[in-house]
Specification:
Elements lengths: L4 E7 L3 E6 L4 H7 L18 E6 L6 H4 L4 H5 L2 E3 L9 E4 L28 E3 L2 E2 L11 H13 L4 E3 L1 H13 L3 E9 L2 E9 L7 E7 L3 E8 L5 E8 L9 H10 L3 H20 L9 E8 L1 H8 L21 E2 H4 L8 E4 L9 H10 L8 E5 L3 E7 L4 E7 L19 E8 L2 E6 L7 E2 L1 H13 L18 E4 L2 E7 L10 E4 H25 L8 E5 L8 H6 L11 E5 L1 H11 L1 H13 E4 L5 H9 L17
Parallel strand pairs: 1-5, 8-10, 11-14, 14-16, 17-26, 19-28, 20-22, 26-27
Antiparallel strand pairs: 1-2, 3-4, 3-5, 6-9, 7-9, 9-10, 11-12, 12-13, 15-16, 17-18, 18-19, 20-21, 23-24, 24-25
Helix pairs in contact: 6-7, 10-14, 10-15, 12-16, 14-15
Length: 625
């Protein structure tokens, strides 16, 4: 008997799909390409995938009841990941569960890195001597011989697709031909041949495959000029917003294929968007370099990531094979090469290798640090002689998770906040009505609360404060940042004592990781000459307040520099330079990873950091609340 199917329509975007009986609303959303916030990957423990049933019947799972008030249950609120479909449904996705107006960091703020442009795929125009009875070698030998004369390189492989069209291409072009030559691990390979001189149509794609967002650039390979850049939310977030939940989905729910396919689909859409207003053919894009953390790289390549999260934390690979676009279903020249930058360890990936490369850390004698703050705080410290790195599990707080009114840096997120004489002022992304607090807004909030003596350095509220914004609800102290009548959700935006505790743990993990790494090396944090802060989180970061809560070290502010998307910058540099790509492999091999989960000094530092700014005031001499 055929399985029943039901229609699920998602509002306010008015998009529908049909699913089999018993599928969850979250699975229906994934099928319809509709984003619903999903921090825990469908485990029903984060309460973020709140939706409202407008029409149709559902049963509220017992697990979900704890996340809703009686009034909300009566209004039809359910968790999408726990609610199964047994009827045709109309589902409203409330603002707090959507990804609207996501602020995607598409650029980098680093000064242009000086590189000698020598792309990983070259186009070389040749005028070949025509065959004669005295010189009747094969077409492929003739091509390789002339390449050797022009370049001095010896030995060329040639793809079967090139061989199949070589005979006709040579003769149609009167033996004037442009081969595309790719740098391979063990030499060079001819991946394409075109008649006549096509060296001026020579393009590549650089991609940052981030956990939250995916960003792509199209680059003119002859000049290094960036012709366009675009980005999109990573649709894998529908399956879990952090790498751990995605690993669980891939391994426990047989979801690897889905996670692989949605990232490929997104990259193809970004490429199409880049070319929509340009007279560039897909066939003229002959290389792509991607950078991402270890889990994202595995999902991009379709590698099983299960053991990344399990002790002893072993990925399938840290050096990834060069593949072709047709093997990956990337919609560019089918024979284009795709390079994925190497990882260092399970939680230090190609994005950090790209960042170290882009910042020039391995080229300079002075001690430099790079920190990428997200769900994982990835840190690298070093110079031209040594490199040490680690990753601290900061949790989702700085990504808006684990806090009652936290959200990602999307439209309506409070990203700046101050308190003066009891009055709160704030700014939101897109100047929209406030819907919650993103990472930088949460940091500002904690700093202002402790500075104004509303909370103590241990993160607990002063119980005797005379402030109408403060109250205790269901035994949990909270402070109203935005009253209900001013918010975009018509609900008050609050920060609770539990939220503050989670944020202190997150900032403590980041600082403890950096302090542990410095101690392991045998240096003081004040010996760091430059601290680069990378990634979208730093885009709104108030450095003074980040130091004030003990997230960043108390060093001269001019030493700290926000550098934007260094993962994308490093990918582009590798696209344009064979030497840079080789350097990326050298960097990945040279970096010593410290596994903090089994490093006892880290636990001691973590406990010491659970204070604002720190239990050791000597580490923060400039902070005086």
């Amino acid at each position: 008997m055929a399985t029943k199917k039901y229609q699920v329509n998602f509002m306010p975007i008015n998009r529908s799909t049909f699913v089999e009986e018993g599928a969850t609303i979250a699975e229906a959303a994934q099928k319809a390409d509709v984003y619903i916030k999903n921090l825990c990957g469908g485990q029903g423990i984060c309460g973020q995938c709140r939706v409202q049933i407008i029409s149709g019947k559902v049963e509220l799972e017992d697990k979900a009841k704890a996340f809703f008030s009686k009034e909300e249950i009566e209004k039809g609120y359910v968790l999408a990941c726990q609610t199964k479909v047994y009827d045709n449904l109309e589902v409203l996705i409330p603002p707090e569960s959507r990804m609207e107006g996501a602020k995607i960091l598409t650029g980098e703020m680093l000064k242009a890195t000086e590189i000698e442009i020598e792309p990983i795929v070259k186009k070389i125009f040749l005028e070949l001597p025509k065959p004669t009875i005295e010189d009747n070698v094969s077409d492929s030998t003739r091509l390789s011989r002339e390449l050797r004369k022009k370049t001095g390189w010896h030995g060329y492989d040639i793809s079967i697709s090139c061989l199949r069209k070589l005979n006709s291409t040579l003769r149609e072009g009167d033996f004037k031909i442009t081969p595309s030559i790719a740098k391979h691990r063990n030499g060079y390979k001819i991946i394409d041949v075109e008649k006549n001189d096509t060296t001026d149509t020579h393009y590549g794609i650089a991609v940052d495959v981030g956990t939250t967002t995916v960003v792509a650039q199209i680059v003119e390979m002859n000049t290094g000029r960036v012709l366009g850049v675009t980005g999109a939310p990573n649709p894998q977030a529908s399956y879990g917003e952090d790498v751990i939940s995605r690993i669980i989905y891939a391994c426990n729910k047989n979801g690897l294929g889905e996670l692989h396919e949605v990232i490929i689909k997104t990259i193809n859409q970004l490429i199409q968007n880049l070319l929509s207003e340009k007279d560039i053919s897909l066939n003229s894009i002959i290389a792509m370099v991607a950078a991402g953390n270890t889990t994202m790289s595995h999902l991009l390549l379709g590698l099983m990531p299960c053991t990344i999260r399990l002790e002893p934390y072993v990925p399938v690979a840290d050096i990834y094979p060069q593949v072709t676009a047709k093997e990956m279903n990337i919609n560019i020249n089918p024979e284009a090469i795709i390079e994925t930058l190497p990882s260092v360890a399970s939680y230090v990936g190609g994005d950090i290798v790209a960042g170290v490369l882009a910042c020039g850390i391995a080229e300079r004698p002075e001690i430099t640090a790079l920190i990428d703050i997200g769900t994982n705080g990835e840190i690298a410290i070093g110079n031209s002689e040594w490199l040490v790195c680690c990753s601290a599990s900061a949790g989702p707080a700085f990504e808006g998770g684990g806090t009652r009114c936290g959200m990602r840096a999307t439209r309506g997120a409070i990203n700046e906040l101050s308190i003066s004489d009891g009055k709160i002022t704030y700014k939101t992304i897109g100047n929209a009505k406030p819907r919650g607090l993103c990472g930088s807004g949460l940091i500002d909030c904690i700093y202002e609360l402790v500075k104004n003596k509303i909370i103590r350095p241990d993160g607990k509220f002063e119980r005797d404060i005379k402030d109408e914004r403060f109250s205790v609800v269901d035994g949990i102290p909270q402070y109203v940042i935005v009253p209900a009548e001013e918010s975009g959700t018509k609900q008050p935006i609050v920060i609770t004592e539990t939220d503050i505790d989670n944020l202190i743990k997150s900032k403590g993990a980041i600082f403890a990781a950096m302090k542990s790494l410095a101690d392991y090396i045998g240096i003081g944090l004040d010996q760091i000459e430059k601290l680069y802060v990378a990634g979208g989180f730093g885009n709104y970061l108030n450095i003074e307040k980040a130091i004030g809560i003990g997230l960043l070290p108390d060093i001269p502010r001019e030493k700290i520099e926000f550098v934007g998307n260094t993962s994308l910058a490093g990918a582009r540099i590798c696209l344009l330079s064979e030497k840079a790509l080789e350097k990326a492999f050298i960097i990945s091999r040279a970096m010593t990873n410290i596994e903090l989960s089994v490093y006892q000094p880290f636990m001691d530092e973590f406990v010491a950091a659970l204070f604002l700014p720190h239990t050791n005031k000597e580490l923060f001499p400039s902070i005086n609340y």
